[in-house]
Each structure stands twice: as structure tokens, then as C-alpha cells.
């Protein structure tokens, strides 16, 4: 069993925590730095260009530039701010990361928090020049008639949407007239609804449109009116005739663009992104801010979060996890988790596929060796099962355990009907809640990704009638891809089994979560029943 | 010509906002709940409460005022019951009606009725002498019957100063449905009430309210209030009426800007009081079969008088069964808010009331009771139109039947 | 002697605070009124279809396991907070009472966290929606629990034909009449996930979601919306306010569809009910001196400090301080742990 965070022995701490590195030019970087400093950690904030941030636009309640300076202005001996020209390069060395911050400057950090900024999505299609985008700079001026358009080509970000509503109210209060065209009104937070209501009562005109998008036309230069734009929209309730609104300004409310995250940030986080390209796929590390690349955390805009209140919560929550992570990393730094034998051919497969970026390269020759850093290693065993030479072994879960189990299976008489494989996080907990009949045996792996093709083959010839492999749901694995590896291996074996001369045996892969004891029981029973019916993988017809 | 409040399509939003109860108009978030609570949604393809509100908010009040919908609306208020932003449809529709009237599009019969009420004091234009004669003649008709019962002669008191109760009837009682007047006469007699009529003020209705003519509506209310004060009555008693009673009870003090100085009661409330005081010797189960009760929108939803009529019915009925939904969520009969009197709406009101019909039929009751004469009239027509196997009675009618059984 | 942090509430928020503190070397005591940890989320189902849908319910399984096996966490079940003892400004001890025996115990406390969760709105009072009256009307939580127990037959009740199901959003949220004029934050995505989960095993069902404004933001939100559309889930703006039971126990609504008024029938209606303040809110507020906000939730200090309260040493975590979905609850609870550690001046107590 690999040690979980909570099992770390609570020895008195002699040395202070290593410093944390925060990367990012904007408000999120400042918020993250402050969160770490509040916990008593020392922080180096590295900026690569001028201060800017999409987040500035989404704070409806106060002056965010002032807040930025407030966060960082305290004469804090634990805060170092560096402005560098190039992006840092990192290398793992237990218990943390070595970061090159420029020529000859290499520093050690316990963890890194990435807070890179994002751009807003371009909504300019079919819009004339002069149409503004909410969030590209401070919003000022006392326009007379302003039309805000939400959900134009893409759903608007709710935080930016609410900021637009606030600006609409301000404009209305100053004697102007605001229009908000939308598909869905954002009402996040406990005050979202009352902000929206306040806007309606202040006279802001809300028009909900349906599938038909509003259109904006710019009037001719010398039309003699300050109302430069004509916006046409059809109310989705009233339908009927379209409304035409003449106005001074048109402001489009966009949403963050996942594809604008810079490559260096993606590299740091080992491309652990969600389906829109934002950092942190966040499967089970929900809002701990951890990426699968251990030691790397992410906060703020780069995670798709433009909501200032949520970013603050996220930053503080991430900071507390980062501190815990550094504690554990320090405790484990001298341990060895993955042993490598002479069989190793330095193909670097393990280095490439480790979901936790736990391997570091040693040596600069054309064929480096690799070493797993215990501080980063989750001991999932994916590397062990993918190594083409079977040169690796987990210290806490050696191959012997598996061989011993298989020996037991072979020796069981009468033969078992079924072997059940799964991970300790999910399958083991489900099995613990039920009574398996004596002809079914369960064996727990640290992660389903540890179930190699070789293990599957060995099990298939051990005398059982069926093997059921249980993994976590796709995108829910604690090691990101472990469950998918298990599936791929099962499918590979099944494909090979389907060729002529193969043995009649059942092999199946299913996904389940620890939340599904009833479904789990159903899957096991169904598989067990099909074994009793004598079905098997038939050889292909000639 | 009626002096309807002048309004314009552009100003209608601010008119509504400045009317008491209209201030939430802007707060509508188009949640859509009102659509399904309105019984007219199923009757009109392209109009419903939410749509109406949206038209006003988009500056299209003229279109809204042109629609038949605002005249088919009974002001039942069910749409905005539970409105999460606490809007009030009543205010919105009445303002739109005012706009329509100012453009010469108001229903003729209603506007004539308002003129008559302002000139003569009642919407049928009956002069005082004729009313007194009619009332006395109606009393004479049942005098023999009452004497046989040992109740003695039936005096119809007029203008008695110092009487506890001033009773104000609905014009139906002395025109199309005189049997109702006799029922109330009997009720007062059996209950030993200390009451009087006024020979000058004898119409509880307020059609001006219906069309958003607040000035005229206030005048009509003031007439009733001043007469009550003049006679020194402690109670202004409304007949079984909906809007007239509601206005006096809920709106009068606000409109006049002063306390009334007397109680406003409905005759069903009074009967309930008398029942609890033991003044009514009703016989349990004297009304055979099963009775169900229709909550009139004004008496029920708008004034909260749900239990009094039910207790009265239970005291006399063999069986009682509830409709579903009922009380605050009662479905409108479809006859209020000028719809019953508006000849333009004709028999459409009975088509629109099919939901109500189905609801009543589901109960299996053979007697349908209600406590509003508008509802009574509509439900009687509904019974006839759809051949419903039941009788329609007012609550006081049932009481009197029980007292006489 | 190192004083632990006392956490009232053993649901996902309380467990997260305890876990984060424990990871950082701070001991805690979790006081839970029922006989198990995990709170409401324990009874909710995994919404995975062919992939994880980020409902985050499984987090409670991981957390419950880690916290109950951790050495520096004590768990007291079947008990509630009954008193707070201060010495001047600082918190000294709390008193907890066993619900079964009434026996009270004093606990040393370096900090107190309120994590008592939320109360789901009971839609029975919305008479026109027929909850508790019509067979086919359920709440989101009802169906979630059926799925968890693999007892969907309690929802389908043996209907053989493909079900027509409607979700009604915002029941008990965004509603002035009940003092709940806020969005409950969890139900739009929750309904979409449940709809996709139901379709996974019943691809011939017809599902409609009636909403006011879809709150679609956060991880996987965009995908949920596009997947819903692709799977044929109808998304209709405008929530019916009345359900009528017609022949064969079908549930009928009259509504507007693209400008025309129509009548439509469903087999089943699922009400997306809102989050209300926990039933213990006022009791706990008066025990601790914590203010309640306008809606009755325990009030945090400000929008930039949502874990601390007006009382030094007393913190909030999770939905007891305002409606949240599970993602945000976990983040918020992490922030609470950070605030506690900051205030205890970074001295590990173990």
C-alpha cells in the first residue's frame, strides 16, 4: 500500500517549508501568493511581462488594480518578486523542483503554482469595428445608450456577465439607458439573483433571444448622431417584430479561451487539461488545485475560473493543499518507490507515460537513465506494467505479490470460477461491503493501471473460467489514465483471444465507482452467471 | 361618455409602476410559471400572462391593450399567485383596460354601466323610488310564507339610522335574480339581524375598478362609505359579491386615505358569526347529497375567506367534498372581472370555463355552492350549457334552505 | 497538550476541512449528529455514463475512508454541539451532547468549524406541483437516492413504454415568496447530469428540462450542455407553475412553446429543489454568536473572506453558509482549513 497523506507520521518539524514558486503576471498570481504567505510559507512570484489580467474585468464590486497592489505591497520578508525575460525551465529533484530562472540562476522550490492568464474568446464574427469586448481594460465613460450582448457566439462567462450587469446598472444610475441581450442570465453566488433584480428594477432592459442571434450594424460616419450602432434582436418570448436599439456603444461579453493558455504552462502541468483546454482536468483532486503532474498546482484564469470570489477561495484551498504536499514530499524524499533492474534499456517509456511526472532524467547523454522520485510517485504501477522489459517493480507492491496470488489461484481446487481484479481505491472498498462466494477471488492492485497484459495472460492460464477487471470510470481515475490502460490491455488480449486455436474463457473490463455498490454487485453477478452458462470467447471461424 | 383615465401606450409602464401593487412589474424574470396557472392559456394560442407582461415591458402596451385577452381576463389573480417576484396582474390588466378605453375600445355595456353608477348610484340606472318599491314588493311576495312559519311580517327597513348593519345588495337581486333578495331577507329575519337598506346607495359593484378608472372607482366607494357613516352603521355588509366586497375590504381605506370607522363584512362572514353565536338553528345533513364549494377569486384568493363558507356548508350538508385545487389556488369560474357582463365576450366565457367544468364534475357532487353572485351566475350558465347533473346554489341559499327544512 | 479543531458536521464539507487540516499536521474532532459520516452526498449516486460527469460525489467515499482511518482525527457520532466556552476573545472549549443519552462532553478546541450542510427545500407547499399528491412527481434528491440504491423502479413504477420525463428547475430557488431569492447553484448542472445518466440506460426516454436561466459554468459544463443537446434532451425556457393529473396518471402542463400555447403530458416530473439554510442554523448561531444573513444562512465575514465569521475562532465550511455545488463546497472547505491554519499562526500542533 502506498502511504496516503493522512498516514504520514506526524513528527515534529525541524526545518521550515521550502519556498513556493508562483508564476503569473496578473491578479491570480497575486492572490495565490498572498494565500501562500498567509500560511506562513515563503513565496517567489515570477512575472514574465507586464501586469495584466482578464480577471480585472470580472470583479464587479471594487477596484481590482488597487487590490492587486494591496496584496503584494505589504513589506513581506517572505515574498520575493522577480521579473524575468524568459520562461523558467523545471526539473524534478526530490522533494521538490529545481527551477532555472535565467542564466545561471537555479533555485529549489517545494511546489509551483501556475496562474497564467488567458485571453477572452474572440467574438468578432459578423460584428462591425468599434464593438467592444467586456473585460479588455477598465470600463469607463458615461455613455448614454449601451447595449451589452451576452452569449453571442459562445456562452458568456458568468462572472464577466455579472460584471456587465453591474456596469449596466451604473450606467442606468448615471442617467443612461442600458440594454442587456442574453440567452441565460448569470446568477452565481448568493447575491447573483439580487444583482439581476436590481438591474431590472433600475430600468435596465433585458431581452432574451433564442437561437436567432442579435445583429449589429454600424451607421454611416456622417449620420449626424452619436448613436453609432443599431442593434437588432428578437425577443424569444414576445417574438413578433424585432426590436431595433440605437446606441452609443455595443459591448460583447465573452468567455475565457482555453486555447490561449501558453505552452510553458501546459508543459509544466504535463498537459493535464480539461475538454476546453483549461488546466486541471480535476478528476478526483477536485479543487485541491493539483494537477496530475505532482508538485504543480494551478489557480485562477488558467483553470477557466474568472470569478474573483471563487479564485480567492480556490487560491487559499490550493495553498493549503500545496503546503500539505510539501510536507509529504519532504517526509518521503529519501524513500525509494520504484526499483529498476539491469533489464532497463533506457527507452524512457516510463518517463513519458507516468501520469504524475514522477520520473526525472539522470544524465545528459543520448540515453539518460531515469529515476522515480518518491516525493512525486503515487505508486500506481502504470510504469511497471508498461515497461517493455519488465525492468521495474514497485517497492510497496512487488511482482511477487501477484505471482503468489496466481500460484494460489492455480492451486485452488476445485478451480475458481472467477478472478476479480480492481484497484484499492474503488473495487477493494466495494468488495469489502459484500460477501463473495467461495468460487470468486478478489485481488487488489494499487491502481487498475498496474494490471499488465502479462498478468492478464498469466491469469487466463491459471485455470479460472473468467477474469473481470474493474477500473474507475473514464476520467475518474486517481492516476488519470490508469483505468484506460487497463481497458486497452483487456481489449488487446480479447483481440488476440479471438484468433483461432485460443482457449474458451471470459474476460471483461467494466468501470465502476465506490459510490455504486448495487451496480457493482449487478456486474459481478451478471458476469458470474454468464460463466455458469458456459459461454466463452470462441475461436474465429476459418 | 365615461371619464376613463387618460393613458398612453408609452406612459403605461410608469402608470403601472406608480400604482399600488404595480411596483414589481420591472422585476419579472420571465420564469414562466404564470403561463400554466392561467386558465386562458389553453383558450388563446398566442397570448398568456407572461407574454402580456413582456409586451408592456417592451413598450408594446398598445398591442396588449388591443387584445381580446385583457377583456377575457377575469382579474382572478391566479397567475401571479406564488409569482416569485410578487407581481400583480390585476394592476397590469386594469391599466391596459384604461388605455383601451381611452382609445375608444372599451366594452360599451360596461362603460354605460359605469356612467349610470356615477349618475344614479347603481349600474342599472334604477332610481331610488323604483328600488324601494321593488324591494317592498319582493318582501310582500314571501310575507305569507314567512307568516305561516311564524316569523311574523317581513319589514324591509330603509334608511334606519343607528341600525347595526347597512346591507348593500348587488343589482341582480332587484333585476334578473330577485329570488336572491328574498333569500337574504329571510336570512336577516331568521337570524334576527339589526339591519337596514339605504334608499340611495344600493349597488355594491364597482365596474369602474374593472376598467382601471381609479377616480370613478374611488367616487363609488366614497358614496358607500359616506352613506354608512351617515346612517351610523357599525357594519357595512356586502351581499355575496366578489370584487365589490374585496374593494371595500382591502382597497377602500387606501383610496380614501383614512380609516373607514366601521367594519366591512360579507354576508357569509356574518352568517358564520351568527352560526358560532348559535343564532342560526340549522339542521345538520338537511341538504341532501354531496355538496362541493367553488372558492370565488375575490372572496377566497384575494381576501383569504376560505374556512367560513366551508364551515357553514358542513353544518348543513349531508356530505361535503373538496375540488382540487381549491382555496388559494381555486380555478376561476370564468365569469368575473366584467366577463359576465361584457356582451362582447358572449358565450365565449363558457368555452373558457371548460377546465372549471371538468374540475366540478370530478367531484361527483350534486350541489355546487359558492359565495359570489358573479360566480353564481356564471356557474348556473355553465351548468345549463354543459348539462351538468347538479344544482348551483349560493351559501346563504343553502343556509336558508336548511333553516326552512 | 495540542488542542484539536472541532468540526460540527461530518458531511463532505466537514470531512474536507478535517482532511486538509490532518494533511497539514493539525488534529481535529468531527462531531456528527447521525450515526455515519458522509452527510447527504453519501446517499447520492455516481452520475457516470460512459465517462465521469464530474458530479464529485465519489469524493465523499475517498474522504470518508481517509478521515476515518486517519490517526489525528477523532469522530464522535450521534452528537451535536451544545455549548461554546470562551475565555475573553479566544475560544477555549466546546460542549457536545450525545443525542441518545443526553450526556454532555467538554472538548478542548483551538477552533470551531460549522459545517452543518443545507436543508433541501420541501416542495410540498407548492401545492400546484403536486409533490406528495401525484404519484409521478419526485425531487432531484429522491431520484438521486434511487439511483444510488439501484432502485430506479421506484421512479419508473413498472411503466413499460418509454418514459417522458420533465425536470422543473428552480423549485424553491429564486423565489421571493419563500424568502429564497437566490440561485441554489447546483441544480442546473445536476439536472443535466441526471438526465444524461438516465438516458444512458434508457435511451428511448424523452427528457425535457424546463429552466429559467441555465447556470452552466465550471468544469465540463460546456460539454454537458452540448452532450445534452446531442442526446436529444429538450431544453425549454420557462418553468410550468402547475401540474394537472389527467387520465392514466399522466402529468399535464399548459405552457408556451415557441410562441404558441400548448398542452403537454409527461409520465414523470422531477423537481430541482433548492438549498435552504440548515435546520440547525438559528440554534447554532445563537450558541456561537454567529450572525445569520438575510436568507438564514450562517454569514461569513465578507465576499473576500467567506470562511471566517464575526466570531473569532468560529469558521464556516460548505453549504451552511450559502448554497453551493459539491465542487465549490470542497474548495470552500479547503479555504476554511487555510484560514484556521493562518489564524493558529502556522504552528503545527502535532
Summarize the model shown:
The complex is a heterotrimer of chains A (542), B (405) and C (350). Chain A is of the alpha/beta class. Helices cover 27% and strands 20% of the residues of chain A.
Order of adjacent strands in the largest pleated sheet of chain B: 2-1-3-4
Name the beta content range of chain A.
Answer: 15-25%
Relative helix content of chain A = 25-40%
Task: Name the poorly predicted regions of chain B.
Answer: 1-6
CATH class category name of the largest domain in chain A: Alpha Beta
In percent terms, what proportion of residues of chain B is strand?
5-15%
| CATH 2nd-level architecture of the largest domain in chain B | 3-Layer(aba) Sandwich
Tell me about the largest β-sheet of chain B. 4 strands, parallel
Oligomerization category of the chains in this entry: heterotrimer
**Terminal CA distance of chain B:** 50 Å
How would you describe what is shown here?
The complex is a heterotrimer of chains A (542), B (405) and C (350). Chain A contains 13 helices and 24 strands. Chain A is α/β, with parallel strands linked by helices and 542 residues long. In chain A, the strands form seven sheets. In chain A, strands 3-2-1-7-16 form a five-stranded parallel sheet, covered by helices on one side. Mean pLDDT of chain A is 85; it is low at 1-14 and 537-542. Chain B is of the alpha/beta class. In chain B, 47% of the residues lie in helices and 9% in strands. In chain B, the strands form two sheets. In chain B, strands 2-1-3-4 form a four-stranded parallel sheet. Chain B has a four-stranded parallel sheet with strand order 6-5-7-8, with helices on both faces. In chain B, helix 15 runs parallel beside helix 19 (395-404). The longest helix of chain B has 21 residues, at 128-148. The model of chain B is unreliable at 1-6 (pLDDT under 50). Chain C has 350 residues and is an alpha/beta fold. Chain C has two domains: 5-118 and 277-343, FAD/NAD(P)-binding domain, CATH 3.50.50.60; 120-273, 3-Layer(bba) Sandwich (FAD/NAD(P)-binding domain), CATH 3.50.50. Chain C has eight helices and 18 strands. In chain C, the strands form five sheets. Chain C has a five-stranded parallel sheet, covered by helices on one side. Chain C has a five-stranded parallel sheet with strand order 9-16-10-11-12. In chain C, strands 4-5-6 form a three-stranded antiparallel sheet, covered by helices on one side. Chains A and C meet through helix 4, helix 6 and helix 13 of A and helix 1, helix 2, helix 6 and helix 8 of C.
Amino acid at each position: 500500500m502506498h502511504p496516503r497523506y493522512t498516514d504520514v507520521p506526524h513528527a515534529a518539524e525541524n526545518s521550515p517549508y521550502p519556498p513556493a514558486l508562483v508564476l503569473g503576471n496578473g491578479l491570480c498570481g497575486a492572490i495565490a501568493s498572498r494565500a501562500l504567505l498567509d500560511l506562513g510559507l515563503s513565496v517567489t512570484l515570477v512575472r514574465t511581462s507586464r501586469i495584466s489580467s482578464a480577471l480585472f474585468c470580472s470583479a464587479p464590486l471594487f477596484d481590482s488594480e488597487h487590490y492587486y497592489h494591496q496584496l503584494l505591497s505589504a513589506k513581506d520578508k517572505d515574498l520575493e518578486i522577480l521579473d524575468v525575460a524568459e520562461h523558467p525551465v523545471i526539473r524534478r529533484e526530490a522533494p521538490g523542483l529545481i527551477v532555472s530562472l535565467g542564466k545561471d540562476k537555479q533555485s529549489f522550490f517545494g511546489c509551483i503554482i501556475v496562474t497564467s492568464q488567458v485571453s477572452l474568446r474572440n467574438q468578432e464574427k459578423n460584428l462591425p469595428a468599434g464593438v467592444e469586448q467586456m473585460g479588455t481594460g477598465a470600463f469607463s465613460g458615461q455613455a448614454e445608450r449601451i447595449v451589452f450582448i451576452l452569449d453571442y457566439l459562445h456562452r458568456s462567462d458568468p462572472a464577466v456577465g455579472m460584471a456587465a450587469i453591474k456596469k449596466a446598472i451604473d450606467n442606468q444610475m448615471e442617467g443612461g439607458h442600458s440594454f442587456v441581450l442574453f440567452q441565460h442570465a448569470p446568477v452565481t453566488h448568493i447575491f447573483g439573483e439580487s444583482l439581476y433584480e436590481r438591474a431590472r428594477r433600475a430600468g435596465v432592459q433585458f431581452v432574451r433571444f433564442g437561437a436567432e442571434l442579435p445583429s449589429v450594424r454600424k451607421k454611416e460616419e456622417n449620420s449626424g448622431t452619436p448613436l453609432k450602432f443599431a442593434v437588432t434582436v428578437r425577443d424569444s418570448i414576445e417574438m413578433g417584430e424585432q426590436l431595433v436599439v440605437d446606441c452609443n456603444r455595443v459591448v460583447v461579453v465573452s468567455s475565457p479561451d482555453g486555447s490561449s493558455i501558453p505552452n510553458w504552462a501546459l508543459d509544466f502541468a504535463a498537459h493535464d487539461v480539461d475538454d476546453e483546454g483549461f488546466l486541471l482536468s480535476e478528476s478526483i483532486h477536485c479543487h485541491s488545485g493539483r494537477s496530475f503532474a505532482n508538485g504543480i498546482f494551478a489557480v485562477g484564469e488558467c483553470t477557466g475560473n474568472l470569478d474573483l470570489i471563487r479564485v480567492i477561495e480556490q487560491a487559499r484551498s490550493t495553498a493549503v493543499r500545496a503546503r500539505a504536499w510539501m510536507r509529504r514530499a519532504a517526509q518521503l524524499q529519501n524513500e525509494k518507490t520504484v526499483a529498476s533492474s539491469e533489464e532497463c534499456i533506457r527507452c524512457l517509456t516510463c518517463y513519458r507515460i507516468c501520469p504524475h511526472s514522477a520520473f526525472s532524467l539522470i544524465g545528459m547523454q543520448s540515453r539518460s537513465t531515469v529515476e522515480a522520485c518518491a516525493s512525486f510517485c503515487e505508486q500506481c504501477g502504470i510504469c511497471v506494467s508498461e515497461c517493455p522489459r519488465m525492468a521495474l517493480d514497485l517497492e510497496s507492491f512487488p511482482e511477487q505479490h501477484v505471482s503468489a496470488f496466481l500460484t494460489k489461484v492455480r492451486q485452488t481446487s476445485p478451480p475458481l470460477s472467477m478472478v476479480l481484479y480492481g484497484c484499492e481505491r474503488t473495487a477493494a472498498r466495494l468488495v469489502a461491503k459484500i460477501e463473495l462466494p467461495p468460487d470468486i477471488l478478489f485481488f487488489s492492485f494499487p491502481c487498475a493501471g498496474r494490471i499488465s497484459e502479462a498478468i492478464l495472460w498469466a491469469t487466463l492460464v491459471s485455470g479460472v473460467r473468467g477474469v473481470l477487471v474493474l477500473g474507475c470510470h473514464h476520467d475518474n481515475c486517481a492516476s488519470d489514465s490508469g483505468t484506460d490502460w487497463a481497458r486497452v490491455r483487456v481489449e488487446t488480449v480479447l483481440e488476440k483471444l479471438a484468433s483461432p486455436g485460443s482457449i474458451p474463457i471470459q474476460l471483461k473490463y467494466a468501470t465502476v465507482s465506490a459510490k455504486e455498490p448495487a451496480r457493482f454487485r449487478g456486474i459481478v453477478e451478471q458476469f458470474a452467471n454468464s460463466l455458469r452458462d458456459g459461454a466463452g470467447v470462441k475461436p474465429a471461424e476459418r | 361618455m365615461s371619464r376613463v383615465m387618460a393613458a398612453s401606450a408609452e406612459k403605461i409602464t410608469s402608470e403601472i409602476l406608480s400604482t399600488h401593487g404595480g411596483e414589481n412589474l420591472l422585476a419579472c424574470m420571465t420564469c414562466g410559471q404564470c403561463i400554466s396557472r392561467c386558465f386562458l392559456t389553453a383558450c388563446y394560442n398566442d397570448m398568456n400572462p407572461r407574454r402580456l407582461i413582456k409586451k408592456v415591458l417592451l413598450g408594446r402596451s398598445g398591442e396588449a391593450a388591443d387584445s381580446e385577452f385583457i377583456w377575457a381576463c377575469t382579474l382572478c389573480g391566479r397567475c401571479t399567485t406564488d409569482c416569485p417576484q410578487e407581481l400583480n396582474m390585476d394592476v397590469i390588466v386594469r391599466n391596459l383596460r384604461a388605455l383601451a378605453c381611452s382609445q375608444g375600445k372599451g366594452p360599451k355595456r360596461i362603460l354605460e354601466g359605469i356612467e349610470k353608477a356615477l349618475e344614479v348610484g347603481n349600474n342599472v340606472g334604477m332610481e331610488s323610488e323604483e328600488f324601494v318599491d321593488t324591494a317592498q314588493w319582493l318582501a310582500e311576495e314571501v310575507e305569507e310564507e314567512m307568516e305561516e312559519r311564524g316569523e311574523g311580517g317581513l319589514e324591509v327597513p330603509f334608511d334606519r339610522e343607528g341600525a347595526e348593519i347597512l346591507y348593500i345588495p348587488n343589482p341582480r337581486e332587484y333585476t334578473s335574480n330577485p329570488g336572491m333578495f328574498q333569500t337574504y331577507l329571510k336570512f336577516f329575519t331568521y337570524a334576527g339581524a339589526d339591519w337596514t337598506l339605504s334608499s340611495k346607495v344600493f349597488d355594491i359593484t364597482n365596474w369602474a375598478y374593472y376598467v382601471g378608472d381609479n377616480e370613478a372607482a374611488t367616487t363609488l366607494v366614497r358614496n358607500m362609505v359616506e352613506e354608512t357613516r351617515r346612517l351610523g352603521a357599525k357594519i357595512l355588509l356586502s351581499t355575496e359579491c366578489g370584487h365589490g366586497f374585496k374593494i371595500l375590504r382591502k382597497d377602500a381605506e387606501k383610496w380614501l386615505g383614512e380609516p373607514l370607522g366601521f367594519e366591512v363584512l360579507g354576508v357569509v362572514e356574518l352568517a358564520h358569526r351568527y352560526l358560532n353565536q348559535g343564532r342560526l338553528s340549522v339542521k345538520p345533513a338537511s341538504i341532501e347529497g354531496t355538496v362541493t364549494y367553488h372558492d370565488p377569486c375575490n372572496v377566497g384568493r384575494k381576501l383569504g375567506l376560505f374556512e367560513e363558507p366551508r364551515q357553514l356548508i358542513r353544518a348543513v350538508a349531508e356530505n361535503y367534498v373538496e375540488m382540487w385545487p381549491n382555496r388559494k389556488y381555486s380555478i376561476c369560474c370564468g365569469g368575473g372581472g366584467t366577463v359576465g357582463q361584457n356582451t362582447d365576450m358572449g358565450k365565449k366565457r363558457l368555452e373558457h370555463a371548460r377546465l372549471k367544468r371538468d374540475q366540478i364534475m370530478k367531484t361527483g357532487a350534486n350541489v355546487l355552492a359558492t359565495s359570489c353572485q358573479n360566480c353564481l351566475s356564471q356557474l348556473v350558465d355553465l351548468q345549463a350549457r354543459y348539462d351538468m347533473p347538479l344544482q348551483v346554489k349560493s351559501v346563504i341559499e343553502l343556509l336558508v334552505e336548511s333553516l326552512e327544512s | 497538550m495540542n488542542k484539536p479543531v472541532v468540526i460540527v458536521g461530518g458531511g463532505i464539507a466537514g470531512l474536507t476541512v478535517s482532511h486538509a487540516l490532518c494533511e497539514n499536521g493539525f488534529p481535529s474532532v468531527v462531531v456528527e449528529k447521525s450515526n455515519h459520516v458522509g452527510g447527504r452526498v453519501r446517499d447520492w449516486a455516481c452520475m457516470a455514463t460512459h465517462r465521469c460527469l464530474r458530479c464529485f460525489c465519489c469524493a465523499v467515499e475517498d474522504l470518508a475512508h481517509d478521515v476515518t482511518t486517519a490517526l489525528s482525527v477523532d469522530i464522535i457520532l450521534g452528537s451535536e454541539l451544545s455549548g461554546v466556552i470562551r475565555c475573553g476573545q479566544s475560544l477555549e472549549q466546546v460542549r457536545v451532547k450525545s443525542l441518545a443519552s443526553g450526556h454532555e462532553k467538554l472538548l478542548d478546541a483551538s477552533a470551531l468549524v460549522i459545517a452543518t450542510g443545507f436543508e433541501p427545500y420541501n416542495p410540498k407547499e407548492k401545492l400546484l406541483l403536486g409533490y406528495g399528491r401525484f404519484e409521478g412527481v419526485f425531487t432531484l434528491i429522491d431520484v438521486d437516492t434511487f439511483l444510488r440504491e439501484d432502485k430506479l423502479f421506484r421512479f419508473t413504477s413498472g411503466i413499460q413504454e418509454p418514459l417522458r420525463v420533465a425536470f422543473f428547475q428552480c423549485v424553491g430557488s429564486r423565489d421571493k415568496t419563500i424568502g429564497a431569492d437566490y440561485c441554489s447553484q447546483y441544480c442546473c448542472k445536476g439536472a443535466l447530469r441526471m438526465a444524461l445518466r438516465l438516458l444512458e440506460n434508457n435511451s428511448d426516454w424523452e427528457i425535457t428540462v424546463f429552466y429559467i436561466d441555465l447556470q452552466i459554468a465550471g468544469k465540463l459544463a460546456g460539454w454537458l450542455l452540448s452532450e445534452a443537446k446531442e442526446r436529444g434532451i429538450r431544453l425549454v425556457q420557462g418553468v410550468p407553475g402547475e401540474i394537472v393529473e389527467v387520465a392514466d396518471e399522466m402529468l399535464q402542463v399548459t405552457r408556451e412553446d415557441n410562441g404558441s400555447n400548448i398542452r403537454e403530458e409527461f409520465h414523470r416530473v422531477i423537481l430541482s429543489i433548492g438549498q435552504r439554510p440548515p435546520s440547525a442554523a438559528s440554534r447554532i448561531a445563537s450558541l456561537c454568536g454567529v450572525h445569520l444573513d438575510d436568507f438564514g444562512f450562517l454569514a461569513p465575514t465578507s465576499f473576500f473572506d467567506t470562511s471566517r465569521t464575526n466570531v473569532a475562532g468560529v469558521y464556516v465550511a460548505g453549504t451552511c453558509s450559502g448554497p453551493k455545488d459539491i465542487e465549490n463546497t470542497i474548495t470552500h472547505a479547503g479555504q476554511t482549513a487555510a484560514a484556521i491554519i493562518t489564524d493558529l499562526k502556522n504552528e503545527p500542533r502535532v
